[in-house]
């Protein structure tokens, strides 16, 4: 079997391509399947990695086909651009398919739904298409013609990275096409987990500063803790401090204002991008996952593998990773007071927290492996092709 793998970009800018390349490396190392990769740019970290791996790749310009409305007059232009990029991708697919027809691909596997290119190439080559969906999107997302109904129509199988994402999309996809495979997390951190001896609590949030990550909830909780006499506590933010949009810049500025207004300047530290997360996590006690709706939760798994107590919101895929009071603590996302209650419980119950951390550490290594993910995805591809015949 020979597969054409379609990536949405040529960089490792987010988790999607990192997860993809973990799968590809496992396939190559174990010689499980023959594949080539299609990318939209001729330079980037993904290109460098493919060359190191000795994997053949193809390059033609194509676009991501989504945007977001922002309640501005420019939304009309944003929608028009999404449609024009979709049309451009169809033309690019015709062009590249003429060059790929002699390669005898049996299937196209798209790594995300962010680009329509994989489905368009599969249609031109008259072969099946499978898509690995890794993102929720939200009510403001503009998907244009390449919406989930279009993806369903142009795919023989759809893989999601959590049950929560499957549930989110289930009304638009034929049930028999749906599969769930959790990402394999490469992050490892060998750490002896011992009971905390001092009474100072360091709490970490990892990820870019953005409204979807709900860092403001942690700051609200910190204020409540301080007001109730918990002053031996510090909140640490690791992640880029501004995104590309004015919206994210305003959000970061608002966080800084909240910190000043609440008198928390000495209780909060921003690190920006951190190169050595293992070293930083060794100084931490708790990691928070406050996101509105995580599609999976790499950071959640990384926190567990670092021996930390992870406290996460009860939305998205976080409850699929955290079993409350077994492998972490769950709080009512959006309820800062409930988050405070969970943090206080952790402070007051160090022995129970020690047992939770140990269970989480072991479970994170057993449940979210690259080997399992890569083999599941390949099995889904084989099964879907067999059923197609």
UniProtKB/TrEMBL annotation:
Glycosyl transferase family domain boundaries: 192-361
Region forming the signal peptide: none
CDD domains given in the database record: GT4_PimA-like
Domain Glycosyltransferase subfamily 4-like N-terminal: 47-185
PANTHER family in the record: D-RHAMNOSYLTRANSFERASE WBPZ (PTHR12526:SF627), GLYCOSYLTRANSFERASE (PTHR12526)
Record protein name field: Glycosyltransferase family 4 protein
Organism whose genome encodes this protein: Anaerostipes hadrus
Species lineage: Bacteria, Bacillati, Bacillota, Clostridia, Lachnospirales
């Amino acid at each position: 079997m020979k597969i054409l793998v379609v990536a949405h970009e040529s960089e490792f800018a987010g988790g999607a391509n990192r997860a993809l390349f973990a799968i590809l490396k496992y396939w190559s190392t174990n010689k499980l399947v023959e594949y080539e990769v299609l990318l939209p740019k001729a330079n980037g970290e993904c290109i460098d990695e493919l060359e190191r791996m000795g994997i053949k790749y193809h390059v033609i310009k194509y676009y991501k086909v989504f945007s977001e409305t922002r309640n501005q007059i420019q939304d009309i232009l944003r929608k028009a651009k999404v449609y024009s990029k979709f049309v451009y991708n169809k033309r690019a697919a015709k062009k590249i398919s003429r060059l790929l027809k002699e390669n005898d691909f049996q299937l196209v596997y798209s790594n995300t739904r962010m680009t329509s290119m994989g489905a368009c190439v599969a249609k031109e080559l008259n072969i099946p298409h499978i898509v690995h969906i890794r993102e929720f999107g939200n009510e403001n997302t503009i998907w244009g013609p390449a919406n989930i109904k279009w993806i369903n129509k142009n795919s023989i199988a759809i893989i999601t990275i959590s049950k929560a994402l499957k549930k989110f999309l289930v009304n638009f996809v034929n049930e028999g096409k749906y599969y769930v495979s959790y990402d394999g997390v490469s992050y490892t951190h060998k750490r002896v987990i011992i009971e905390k001896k001092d009474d100072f609590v360091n709490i970490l949030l990892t990820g870019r500063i953005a409204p979807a990550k709900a860092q403001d909830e942690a700051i609200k909780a910190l204020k409540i803790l301080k007001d109730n006499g918990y002053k031996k506590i510090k909140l640490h933010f690791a992640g880029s401090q501004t995104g590309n949009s004015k919206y994210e810049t305003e959000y970061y500025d608002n966080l800084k204002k909240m910190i000043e207004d609440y008198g928390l300047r000495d209780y909060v530290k921003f690190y920006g991008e951190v190169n050595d997360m293992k070293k930083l996590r060794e100084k931490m006690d708790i990691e928070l996952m406050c996101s509105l709706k995580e599609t999976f939760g790499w950071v959640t798994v990384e926190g567990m593998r670092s021996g930390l107590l992870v406290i996460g919101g009860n939305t998205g895929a976080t409850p699929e990773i955290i079993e409350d009071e077994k492998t972490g603590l769950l709080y009512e996302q959006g309820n800062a007071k409930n988050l405070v209650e969970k943090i206080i419980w952790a402070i007051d119950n160090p022995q129970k927290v020690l047992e939770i951390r140990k269970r989480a550490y072991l479970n994170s290594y057993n449940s979210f492996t690259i080997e399992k993910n890569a083999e599941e995805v390949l099995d889904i591809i084989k099964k879907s092709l067999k059923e197609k015949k």
